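User: Show me a protein chain along with its predicted structure.
Assistant: Here is one chain, sequence first, then structure tokens.
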Amino acid sequence: MAHQLLKGKKGIIFGALDERSIAWKTAIRAVEEGAEIVLTNAPIALRMGKINELAKLCNDAPVIPADATSVADLESLLQKSMEHFGGKMDFILHSIGMSPNVRKAIPYTDTNYDNFLKTLDISALSLHKVLQSSMKLDALNEWSSVVALTYIAAQRTFPGYNDMAEAKALMESIARSFGYHYGFAKKVRVNTISQSPTITTAGSGVSGFDAFFTYADKMSPLGNATAEQCADYCLTMFSDYTKMVTMQNLFHDGGFSNTGVSQSIIEEMEKAAQANG
């Protein structure tokens, strides 16, 4: 049920690829809650995805291509968005991540460093570029909210997550560092949301995804948070109810991040031990 939580607010949603993506669900929910949005993704992603279908579901929201690693593209996106809205914006969702090493199944210990640099540029430095461009163009109103999606592999080792772990750790650091400067300069808040493993096109490409999706679900007291639930959490971060929250990495994972072991996992281990005994 909609509550008009974002009535009158305007923002940009990066990274919606298809109906499984968190950005897709966030876009739909933002519009349901009264927001006006612009949708954007890299040109190649626009060709591969279904973003034009999403635009129709979001009151014919404009779709503006932009490579998030290109400052020129980002500045053009921000300028066109402000022209469309007739003024500054109130929120941005950064839902961007890609690793050539993961896509090519290159083991972490055999990392291709050219690929690694691309991972960092796409998945982490893109946030800095979005924030820097927004500040330069004064594109965000005071008390605006920028949210970037991350994962607990930034703090803990998940072997299949490969070099995306370093990218997420860097991105979280950028959110803290830029959040400090943007907060003092314009009262803009910058946060990351660390989501449960989620069945999306990007997430499912990680080696061993199905196994650690199930593991996380059994470890978490509340189970894994869904993409729809993450979208709702993003909306609360865009709203005026979280105006004093900034520079935080917010775990949205059903309690996984604070659980050492669950009874369900213990019982499974005991059964396996008995079976092997």
